[in-house]
């Protein structure tokens, strides 16, 4: 039996080139015959593309059966066009006369109900919402004005008193002291006398003060100096005009005789 050819049997392949080829992955003559010259030249250092092509040709000559065969291109046969089939005569079907259907009256879709538009009350329309927002923001930053010595002495009330001392640190607006009352803390004049419910507060002393007031805009506050009898007269006059009273106070006192008569009726 003849020996299998080795790489060193190829012309131009020495022991150094044989080692380089084995490092590149080509260990037999069969793998050399199936290699490509350009890729082999890239993998092996010092081997040009021409010399690689010569070595591959020599390997293919040593193994003629192992050379890659070119695939034979099959000739496509011309396909026959399908002949048109003979058309069958289709007899039209006789249509039956349709009975006239009674047309039902179409129901009209009900229009969607519109929500009633919300109308703001007159007191809200009369106030400028932008100025009202500014006033609310100023009230949030407004400090509580206390007496400068209320935190030190129990005998001193917390109600504000203007400091008058020459060396008063509060009067000099020094750091760490209570806030001084000043005009900068005031709210805008347009919304200054408004109640939180946006009614204009009006201080009342007698029933005749209610004559020119509007129940949609004004709300009354009874003065503290008004007596009980006149207070009841003002409340009845306000109810007649549908005016809102902000401080109605307690109701009429029940007399002692009426109380006892009610108790006697319950016992019976």
Protein described:
This protein is mainly alpha-helical and 268 residues long. It is 29% helix and 4% strand. The protein has eight helices and three strands, in the order H-H-H-H-H-H-E-E-H-E-H. The chain has helices spanning 15-23, 29-33, 37-43, 49-62, 122-126, 129-141, 228-240, 256-267; strands at residues 200-204, 218-222, 244-245. Helix 7 links the parallel strand 2 (218-222) and strand 3. The longest helix has 14 residues, at 49-62.
Which key features would you list for this structure?
268 residues, mainly alpha, DNA polymerase, domain 1, three-stranded parallel sheet, 8 helices, 3 strands, 29% helix
Give the N-terminus to C-terminus distance in angstroms.
145 Å
The number of distinct β-strands equals 3
Low-confidence stretches: 69-73
Estimate the mean pLDDT confidence: 79
Spatial strand sequence of the major β-sheet: 1-2-3
Count of helical stretches:
8
Give the radius of gyration: 56 Å
CATH architecture of the domain at 7-62: Orthogonal Bundle
Shape: elongated
Q: Provide the helix percentage.
A: 25-40%
The H-and-E topology, N to C, reads as HHHHHHEEHEH
Question: Which fold does the CATH topology of the domain at 7-62 refer to?
Answer: DNA polymerase, domain 1
């Amino acid at each position: 039996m003849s020996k299998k050819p080795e790489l060193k049997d190829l012309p131009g392949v020495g022991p150094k080139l044989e080692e380089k080829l084995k490092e590149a992955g080509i260990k037999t003559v069969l793998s050399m015959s199936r290699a490509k010259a350009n890729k082999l030249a890239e993998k092996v250092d010092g081997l040009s593309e021409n010399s690689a092509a010569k070595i591959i040709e020599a390997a293919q000559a040593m193994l003629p059966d192992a050379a890659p065969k070119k695939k034979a291109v099959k000739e496509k046969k011309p396909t026959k066009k399908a002949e048109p089939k003979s058309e069958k005569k289709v007899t039209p079907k006789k249509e039956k006369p349709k009975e006239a259907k009674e047309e039902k009256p179409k129901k009209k879709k009900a229009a969607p109900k519109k929500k009633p538009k919300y109308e703001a009350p007159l007191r809200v329309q009369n106030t400028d919402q932008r100025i009202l927002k500014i006033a609310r923001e100023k009230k949030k930053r407004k400090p509580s004005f206390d007496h400068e010595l209320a935190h030190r002495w129990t005998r001193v009330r917390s109600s504000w008193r203007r400091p008058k001392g020459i060396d008063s640190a509060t009067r000099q607006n020094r750091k760490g002291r209570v806030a001084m009352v000043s005009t900068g803390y005031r709210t805008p004049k347009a919304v200054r006398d408004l109640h939180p419910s946006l009614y204009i507060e009006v201080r009342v002393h007698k029933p005749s003060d209610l004559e020119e007031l509007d129940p949609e805009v004004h709300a009354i506050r009874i003065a503290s100096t008004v007596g009980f009898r006149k207070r009841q007269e003002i409340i009845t006059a306000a109810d007649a005009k549908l005016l809102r009273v902000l401080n109605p106070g307690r109701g009429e006192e029940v007399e002692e005789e009426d109380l006892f008569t009610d108790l006697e009726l319950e016992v019976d």
